[in-house]
Design goal:
Layout: E1 7-13, H1 19-31, E2 34-40, H2 50-57, H3 74-80, E3 84-90, H4 92-100, H5 106-112, E4 118-122, H6 126-130, H7 132-143, E5 147-148, E6 152-155, E7 161-165, H8 169-184
Parallel strand pairs: 1-2, 1-3, 3-4, 4-5
Antiparallel strand pairs: 6-7
Helix pairs in contact: 1-2, 1-8, 3-5, 4-7
Length: 185
């Protein structure tokens, strides 16, 4: 990974078991000089705590759209200072929200109000990944300019093996840093 100073991302975490990998991803990105702001869905908080993410990033974690900001508009304030928004893990549900422009929580609203690239790291069961609706949503997201980071094939939390597993933190960090560096040139 190359050093990336003065870059800032929003790391969006959704409610899937792969949320534990977001902690390592945040640590690796901070180590590379990236400022990481975390926004979590309510469901994500069932898998990893905001306190963990705040300790790793040194920044307050946003969990709901009513979190206090200078003007009460966290979804706009946070996205305007980011060089990219990265959703890792991105559940099938959250990807469907993105594909259809739904904005019913802080993270989905932040993605809709963004003024920067959006990178999505899918994480779901192999049947969910292969489902026709998910594949339609992936095609729509790509058509909308969203960069897909994975998924990978391997053993999943359910014990099955197949496509849908989130990329490992090191691979994700490499791809994010490469994306940030390419945008700077």
């Amino acid at each position: 990974m190359g050093q990336t100073n003065n870059k800032s991302i929003v790391l969006g975490i959704t409610g899937g078991i792969a949320a534990y990998k977001a902690a390592e991803l945040a640590r690796l990105l901070v180590k590379q000089g990236v400022e990481v702001r975390v926004a979590m869905t309510e469901a994500a908080c069932h898998f990893i705590t905001p306190a963990t993410m705040q300790a790793l990033t040194g920044k307050p974690v946003l969990v709901n759209q009513w979190d206090a900001t200078s003007n009460g508009m966290a979804h706009i304030d946070v996205s305007r200072t980011a060089d990219a928004i990265v959703i890792a893990p991105a559940t099938a549900d959250f990807m469907a929200k993105l594909a259809h422009g739904l904005a019913d929580d802080l993270l989905s609203t932040l993605c809709l109000a963004r003024d920067c690239p959006l990178l999505v790291a899918p994480a779901m069961n192999k049947q969910m990944w292969a489902n026709a609706a998910t594949q339609r949503n992936v095609k729509q997201l790509i058509a909308d300019g969203v960069q897909m980071l994975g998924p990978d094939s391997g053993v999943q939390a359910c014990g099955e093996e197949g496509m849908g597993r989130m990329l490992e933190a090191e691979s994700l960090a490499d791809e994010i840093v490469a994306s940030l560096n390419s945008a700077a040139t």
